[in-house]
Structures are given as C-alpha cells and as structure tokens.
C-alpha cells in the first residue's frame, strides 16, 4: 500500500477516532473500491457506529479487502488478515 494511504489511516485514527470512541488495540478497516478511488470503512465490534471515508487515492485491485491496525500505546503497525492469528 502507498505510504500516503497508510499515513491517512493513522491520521484518521489520531484525529477522528482516539478520544471520541473507545478503541480496541486491534482495529479492522475495509478497503473499498469506490469508482476507482479508495473508501476506508470502519465499524468497531459490538457497536452501531459506522464510518466510511473517501480518500483521494487510486484503488488498486491488489489492495487487500481488509487491514488491521494494531496500537497498544507503545507499538503501532498495520497488518494484513493473513498476519492475524485466529
């Protein structure tokens, strides 16, 4: 994924989610093809909150359908579904 897309995900978390809603250490985001651009969809588990954010980045068919963002307060990383232990 392009650095700009990854940076946008962290900005959304830091500016729009943290302190607004309770967040788990692992968050799931769907990457959606919205007429050739990326839409980032987020809905926390066991919540009625839903958020879809249209981003100015081109969607690439090689993008994963979903990514996970891990933030425990000291470590931050973005993971693919295949990297999450079930």
UniProtKB/TrEMBL annotation:
Pfam families: DUF960 (PF06124). Gene3D superfamilies: enterococcus faecalis protein. InterPro entries: DUF960 (IPR009303). This is GTP cyclohydrolase. It comes from Enterococcus ratti.
